[in-house]
Every structure is written in structure tokens, then in C-alpha cells.
Amino acid sequence: MPCLDLETPRLRLRTWRDDDLAAFAALNADPEVMRHFPGCLGRDESDALAARIRQHIEDHGFGQWVVEDRADGAFVGVLGLQNVNFDAPFTPAVEIGWRFLPRYWGQGLACEAARAALAFAFERLPLAEVVAFTVPANLPSQALMERLGMQRDGDGDFEHPRLPEGHALRPHRLYRLGRAQWEALQ
Prior knowledge:
single chain, alpha+beta, 5-stranded antiparallel sheet, 4-stranded antiparallel sheet, 5 helices
């Protein structure tokens, strides 16, 4: 099932091409980008992640898009929707997530792309809810979640089951956005 490409005033959210793998690997190897993740990814790990993302799109018709600058076609990062792939009290669920190169931070691009992805989620799929989560220290992502109209679910905060007990990145904050909330924001 193909995933539709999306456009915003400054960005194109598009399906993956094989030539995206090197830029994706550079993104995943950047310590600044990966500071709220367990670690940077090597090329093989990054390629394996890209393969899983592409398979998710094939299986479900949505997933993480490659985000590129419409002006010059430059790789900006990835952003999109995916089924949460672990068990937690809030699953099953679809999450929105993003990862952009640092030179594109602070320009409102992630918010612009995320709004397009949420419109796709609620208007085309149509989902009842989208969640997002991150570690408490990732204040920029939490601020973006709030700009998108997502609400923190303090009762839903959780320990990430893929990280060992006591790991500094195990605690996560949960945010939610329901269809009715999304429609009220439009």
C-alpha cells in the first residue's frame, strides 16, 4: 500500500528512495540529534531502521516520510506516523515522531511538517488519536507537541520497556491528540 506524498509551503514529505540511506545514516550518527536516544546508529543499524520504516509503510500505507526542502531538495530529516511497536498501557496506538538535522532546527519546519502529518492522520486514515512521547529532558520536542495541540497525559507517563531498569532514558512523558481536539484547532 503506497504512502501519499505531502507538501507544505516549505517542505515535501515523500516516500523513501535508496539514495536517502546515506543522509539518513548521517542523521542517525549525529550525537546532537541522538542525545535523547540510547546511542548513535552505525550505517548497518541505520539501514536496518530504514528497512523497517519502509516495511511499515508497505504494510500500513503510512509511516515515516523523508522530509526535504522544497527549494533545493535537500534532506531535512524524517517525520511521520507509525504503530507503536511495544506493549504499554496506551497501546495499541499510532505515534508521531521526528528527527531533523540540527541546521534545520528552530525554523518551525518540524511543526509545519507535523501539522501536515496530523492532517493526514485525522483526515485520510482516519485515526481517532495520535500519541507522542519523549524523555523528560527533551524539552524542544515537548514544546513542539504542545504547539501541535497535544496534551500531556501525566497518568500515562511510562517506563520505556525496551530500555533496562535504571537507564537514564527509560522514563518517558506521554502526549495525546484526539480527533475532536484536532478538529477544534482547525
